[in-house]
Amino acid sequence: MDSIVVKGGTPLKGKIQIAGAKNAALALMPATLLSEEPLTLTNAPRLSDIKTMTELLRSLGVEVTALQDGKVQVLSSHAMTSTTADYDIVRKMRASNLVLGPLLARHHQAVVSLPGGCAIGARPMDIHVTALEAMGAEIELKDGYLHANAKGGLKGARVPLRFASVGATENVLMAATLAKGTTVIENAAREPEIVDLAECLRRMGAQIDGEGTSAITIQGVDRLGAATHPVVTDRIELGTYMLAPVFAGGEVECIGGRLDLVGSFVEKLHAAGVEVTETADGLKVSRSNGRARAVDVTTEVFPGFPTDLQAQMMAMLCTAEGTSVLEEKIFENRFMHAPELVRMGADIEVHGGTATVHGVDRLKGAPVMATDLRASVSLILAGLAAEGETVVSRVYHLDRGYEHVEEKLGAVGAQIERIAGS
Predict the structure, then answer these.
(1) How deeply is 20 buried, as exposed, middle or buried, from its count of CB atoms within 10 A (0-12, 13-18, 19+)?
(2) Which of 62, 88, 104, 413 has its Cβ near the most Cβ atoms within 10 Å?
């Protein structure tokens, strides 16, 4: 397995281009299942998760063509051959479950394996199942697969979600576009990726109102057509690279960055003494002299502080002045990076869903192991602030969500390289 070696102590200076959002693209790609006409996605990220979704869609008979080195994806479902999403593919990535709603909507049937992905909590499928059952689907779990049928098609319904699940909102949103009648998703997720999906579906001919609020209304239509849609900026990659100069010192401009995507995160950066300014091309971040200040962080659904930036923020707070408390409210078992940061000299106490971080003067390079996608990049960032050399192993997690991280950080002055595994 590959590893990444980071040598700390070098201030950063320059620009980093932020990619299209992984979590948006993984919902947009299954939207092609709703139409016989092609869907073209621009600003697509080049990640292993995108390759996995491509593999899954091709197994269903979807034609997927990558152009411009993968930044443009052209998808066509005019000649589908299957409505079964096999375990061997679905187990690699949780977002694979997003084919369930579209398959039910257009083909009125689907067999979808229970999904896999990072080991950061149960993230149960029951929210998806209950929501689709409210629209007339019959779903049974047999031998690890969800067997779903909607004879005569899905029907519009009032769909209250017991939790503002992003995935369930996306599944129902896509399913409702071809349902008969009106569907109202209550307690809907409000994330920018939901708004992006709604905009894409509207380009395809869907009738949707209320995205970005807790109540989304969809009026079903008979068919959807072709569309071209740019993938929204990845707010998690944006937040990650905004933190890089906080660790290493210096100044970095994140091209394509938008304050509306990372508002709650920027509030915490300001509270910690980090300077963030808007530019014509994005967001510029710099750390003034001295250490950052301690801040308390509680993860919440959007527009609250994102759980996918919690690990990176914890790493930054390891060298902040004072004591910080981080509370994880979205996923259980998401502090697995804490012991690895302790190996680098951090002072962290974890009790259930709460972590207390006592800031230390400096971190020291050490061999550490990535446990999930966001934990892996948090350790790389910590390496930028550490004395000596940090070796992060098991970085296959990293490639699921960050494209060419060593190239992007290296271009602004970081001493970082990837070592190929045997």
Answers:
(1) buried
(2) 104
* Residue 179 to residue 155: CA distance in whole angstroms: 5
3-state secondary structure 215-280: EEEEECCCCCCCEEEECCECHHHHHHHHHHHHHHCEEEEEECCCHHHCHHHHHHHHHCCEEEEECC
Query: Residue written as tokens 């047999």?
Result: 142
pTM: 0.92
What are the tokens at 193?
């990726």
- DSSP string for 67-125: EGGGTEEEEE-TT----EE-HHHHTT-GGGGGGHHHHHHHHSEEEEEPP---SS----S
Contacts of 394 (CB under 8 A, 6+ apart): 1, 3, 369, 370, 371, 376
Q: What is the pLDDT of residues 40-77, one digit of tens each?
A: 999 999 999 999 999 999 999 999 999 999 999 999 99
CA distances from 81 to 78, 85, 240 (A): 10, 12, 40
pLDDT in tens, 207-226: 999 999 999 999 999 999 99
Dihedral sign, CA of 247, 251, 253, 257? Answer: positive
Residue 99, both tokens: 């084919």
Nearest to 373 by CA among 125, 134, 52, 44: 52
* Tokens encoding 22: 């992984």
Short-list 209, 239, 225, CA closest to 31: 225
CA dist 218 and 66 (Å) reads 31
> What six digits make up the tokens of 89?
């593919």
Q: Which two tokens stand for residue 55?
A: 């593999």
Tokens of 393: 């192993």
Element (H, E) at 5: strand 3-7
Which residues does the annotation mark as catalytic? 118
Task: Calculate the alpha carbon distances from 83 to 33, 56, 230, 407 in Å.
Answer: 10, 11, 27, 39
Query: For residue 139, what is the enclosing H or E element?
Result: strand 138-142
Check if the beta carbon of residue 241 is closer than 8 Å to that of residue 16: yes
Q: Model confidence at 116, in pLDDT bands (50, 70, 90)?
A: low
Burial 183-193 (b: 16+ CB within 10 A, else e): bbbebbbbbbb
Beta bridge partners of 391: 5, 367
Instruction: Give strand pairing partners of 149.
Output: 109, 138
12: which strand partners? 250
